[in-house]
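Hi Prof. W.,

I finally got the Laccase prediction working! I wasn't sure whether to trim anything, so I left the full sequence exactly as given:
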Amino acid sequence: AMVRHYKFNVVMKNATRLCSTKPIVTINGNFPGPTIYAREDDTVLVKVVNHVKYNVSIHWHGIRQLRTGWADGPAYITQCPIQPGQVYMYNFTLTGQRGTLWWHAHILWLRATVHGAIVILPKLGVPYPFPRPHMEQVIILSEWWKSDTEAIINEALKSGLAPNVSDAHTINGHPGPVQHCASQEGFKFQVEPGKTYLLRIINAALNEDLFFKIAGHKFTVVEVDAAYTKPFKTDTIVITPGQTTNVLLKTNHASGKYMVAASTFMDAPIAIDNVTATATLHYPNTLGSTITTLTSLPPINSTKIANSFTDSLKSLNSHKYPARVPKKIDHSLFFTVSLGVNPCATCPNGSRVVAAINNVTFVMPKISLLQAHFFNISGIFTDDFPRKPEIVYDFTGNKQPSNFRTNKGTRVYRLAYNSTVQLILQDTGMIAPENHPIHLHGFNFFVVGKGQGNFNPKKDTKKFNLVDPVERNTVGVPSGGWTAIRFRADNPGVWFMHCHLEIHTTWGLKMAFVVDNGKGPNESLLPPPSDLPKC
Ligand code: C2O
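And this is what came out:
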C-alpha cells in the first residue's frame, strides 16, 4: 500500500455560470474540486490550508475512518473547524474500501462549491467483478445559486423560513444552456465508439434528489456508495445527495452527439425546481450532426421510476464479496425523521421551521462531541437519545400530534463496540412529507427493508431481505414511508447521522452515535493528532 499526499488550499475564486460572475470558495481554485485517486488499503494525507474568511472542515464521505474519527470532518462533531489562516492534516487509511466516494466541506453550506470525487481503485492485480472498462469518467452532479450560498442560509435561519431553491443544476460544474443564458456551454464528454466506459456518478447537490439519463444509451449499474451490486440494466439513474453510483456505459453508436441530463426527483414537490442540467456525449464524428435530445426525462414526481430503480439494487453477495448482514440484533431502534415548527420571537412569522429525529432537534455543541467523549468533558452532550419516539402518534395518517413543536438537545445514542444495530427510519406525514436521504458516518449499512405508511413490526420484519440487501452509506427514506437498516458498530468514535438535504441538516435533522472502545488492542480510537483545530 502507498501513501498519497494532497494539498488543499481553500481559496476564493471568481466563477461565471448562468451568465453572471461571483466569488466562490474553492479548493485550489477549482469547481468541482480535485479528485483524490488511491488504491484500497492506501493511506491518504490531505493538508488543508484555510486562506478564506470562513471556518472550514472537510468530510471524506463514505470513508470508514477506522479508529481515525479525528479525520472524519463534520464541524463540532469530530473536530473544531479549521479557522482562517489555520492548517490541518487529514490522515486516514482506506482499509478494505474501494469504489467511488467523495469529499465535501462539512460546515454550514460551504459544500455547495467545496466538493470533489474520491476514486479508490482495487488493490494492484485485483480485477473489478465486472468486465474491465476501457476508460473511466467521474460525473459530479450539483447545484448552482446566483447569489452567495452562505448569505442564503443565514437569511433563512434569521427569518425562520425556507431558503431559496438553486438557480440551476450542474454536471461537472456546468448547467449547460438554459433559458436565460443560452450561450453557456455544458460539459463535453468525448467518447470513442465500441468501448465500455465506467461512469462514477456523484450527487453533490445540497437539496435535490436527481434523475440522470443519457439519450440513446443504457447503463449497467455495478456499484453504489463504493459497494458492488448485482449488475442490472436501466436507462434512468436515481441518486440522492450523498450517494454515488457506478455504471457501465457501452458506446454503441458510430457518431453523433447525445444529450446527458440531470433533473429533480421530488415525491411531493413543494418548491418546483425544473432547471435541467445538460451536457453532451460526443462521438468522434459529430460534424454537422445535431444533438439527440432526451424525449423522456422523468417528470419531477416520478416516484414509480425512482422506486423501480432503488428496488433493483442488491448486494453482489459473491463468494469474494459476501454481504455480512447482522442476523442477531443488540440494539433495536426506531427513529422518526420529520419537520416541525417552533416558536421564534425574532422571526417575522413568530415561528421557525425546524427538523428532528424522534422529535429531538439537534443543537450543535460548543466543542466537538469527539473531544468531549475522548477527554471525558462533561456538559457537552447527554447520552439519552431516545431509542423510540417519546411522542407516539399515527405517523403517516391524518391524525397528527396537537402541535409540531420539537425539543432541542445535544443527545447521543451509545453503542458498545461490535454490537449490532437495527434502525427503522420512519418518515412522518408532517408539514412536508419528503424523501430524506439519511447518511451515517463511520459505517456502511445494509438496507434490509423499505415500505409505505407506518412501519408494522409484525408484518414488515418478516419481509426483510437478510441475504443480499444493498450495502451503502446514504439511503432515501421514502416520503410517508420507512426504511430499515442494519449495521455492526465495529468502529469506535463519534459518528454523525443526518439528512443529506443540507437544509434539513441545518434545521436539526441530525444526531450522533457514540461507539465505545473494545477490549482488543486494535479496537480503540487513536489519540487525536497534535494539529487538531481548537474551538
Ligand atoms: Cu456527506 Cu455528514 O456528510
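The CA atoms of residues 333 and 497 lie 14 Å apart. Does that look reasonable to you?

Thanks,
D.
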